[in-house]
Amino acid sequence: MASAGEDDGIPAASGSPDASLTQDDSFTATSHAGLTYPWGEAAPGAGETIRIANGIRWARIPMPGSLGHINSWLLDDADGIAVVDTGICLTLCSDAWKALYAGALKDARITRVIGTHLHPDHIGLAGWIAKKHGVKLWMTRGEMLTARAIVADSSDSAPDEVIAQSRAAGWDEAALDAQKARGWNMFQRMIFPLPRSYVRMQDGDRLDMGAHQWRVVTGSGHSPEHACLWNEHEGVLVSGDQVLPRISSNVSVNITEPDADPLGEWLASIDKLLGVIPPDVITCPAHGEPFKGLHVRLTALRDEHRMRLYKLAEAIAETPMRAVDCFPLLFNRPIGEHNQGLATGEALAHLKRLEIEGRVRKEDRDGVWWYHGVA
Ligand SMILES: [Zn+2]
Fold first, then answer.
1. Which residues have a beta carbon within 5 Å of ligand 1, which is an ion?
2. Mean pLDDT confidence for 66-93
3. Cα-to-chain-centroid distance, residue 225
4. 250 CA distance to ligand 1 centroid (A)?
5. Taking the model in full, what pTM does it have?
6. Regarding the domain delimited by 25-373, which CATH topology (the fold level of the hierarchy) does it fall under?
7. Phi, psi of 11 (to 5 degrees)
């Protein structure tokens, strides 16, 4: 259902979106060992798709920022094509869709839009595509309702509790002032208005798409209720950000749920995927190239986090630390103003996990959290 002025509300790209909202930056280079990339370095160009297996094609949507792109997966549906993930609400991304409509998707009917999770690079254009084609948005409830809540919560200055958490993590006054000045929440600006209603997906659901069946497998930690899609017959997993081949998805404590244990959820999700999905699938991630070696990658991700937890616990046993003091142990690149928010969220996630495992305890000293070893 195309409407006149279909571009309304999609801003032109100007600079990079706030990294703390794309949430996909990597802090740790990861090994490629054990993974094979059947398509090598190839990637679909503008307006093009690459066939992955029966019923699934790969499109690439360019994005600003360090990620540079998101992959969209096009699934054969009963009477057309279902779109999985969309890019940010920028003309850079909507132009890529127009190129697809004029190219590989020419004359194709779009049947539905599926969002793996709430981050703007995934659902930024979901509302636009759904509106344009008169189709529904499919998401899990945890992702949809959280997205709507975050969209509703923006302001020109950072809220007091955000500043208090940054101070507790050990930020200095200059960094706190900069955070206040930056304002709060660019999420809204990176997402085309979401439809009021959606179709709920739940863990274990089977999505019937013509000749193909896709099973919903949820994970958590990077986002509340991330949906992966698994086609057992074709041996394909659309993994979103739940499994990425080269970078480690951000796992952060957020201000909306400061007592959460996202790293615990992330590690449990890795174990779940290892138990549910066979090792020989082709994994189609949101960023990077499709690969084989899912279990190798999941095990490596788990081991990386476990190693970081171990190093952190060892260091804290020697001397009390704040979240900011953990950065050199957790990340192998400099942390500055542009990535301090993400780094803090990730450090707090590791510290929370250590607290729950009884390896550190938190002391609030004049509004700053100090972590001590537990003998
Ligand atoms: Zn994400």
1. 23-24, 119, 241
2. 96
3. 11
4. 8
5. 0.91
6. Metallo-beta-lactamase; Chain A (3.60.15)
7. -75, 155
